[in-house]
């Protein structure tokens, strides 16, 4: 997936370029350097708004492999119960 950034001016001057870029991933439309808008293909929009029914569907979503997730390992020790 490729993320493209275009200024509002670039978008208004070349909409075809933005539409072509949206086929490969989201296009961030920037206004004064900040991206208040994102342009997506309709297929990507449908995929994002579709209801997930189980964890397997969510994990099978495209792009999940690109998400960094490294939880710390936690060791929980058992202690004897104080029944006094």
Topology:
Layout: E1 4-7, H1 8-13, H2 15-22, E2 27-31, E3 34-39, H3 42-49, H4 55-59
Parallel strand pairs: 1-2
Antiparallel strand pairs: 2-3
Could you explain how this protein is built, in words?
By secondary structure, the chain is an alpha+beta fold. Helices cover 32% and strands 18% of the residues. It has 4 helices and 3 strands. A 3-stranded mixed β-sheet has the order 1-2-3. It is elongated. The N and C termini lie far apart (61 Å). 5% of the residues are buried. The model has no long low-confidence stretch (mean pLDDT 86).
Write a short abstract of this structure.
The protein has helices at residues 8-13, 15-22, 42-49, 55-59, and strands spanning 4-7, 27-31, 34-39.
Main attributes?
single chain; about 80 residues; alpha+beta; YefM-like fold; 3-stranded mixed beta sheet
For the biggest sheet, the summary is: 3 strands, mixed
| Nearest-integer average pLDDT | 86
Uncertain spans: none
Strand order of the largest sheet: 1-2-3
Shape: elongated
Structural Rg:
22 Å
Instruction: Supply the helix-strand structural class.
Output: alpha+beta
């Amino acid at each position: 997936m490729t993320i493209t950034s275009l200024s509002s001016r670039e978008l208004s001057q070349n909409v075809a370029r933005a539409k072509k870029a949206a086929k490969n991933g989201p296009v961030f439309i920037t206004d004064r350097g900040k991206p208040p808008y994102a342009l997506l293909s309709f297929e990507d929009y449908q995929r994002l708004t579709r209801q997930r029914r189980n964890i397997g569907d969510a994990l099978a979503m495209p792009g999940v492999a690109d998400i960094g997730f490294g939880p710390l390992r936690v060791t929980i020790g058992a202690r004897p119960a104080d029944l006094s």
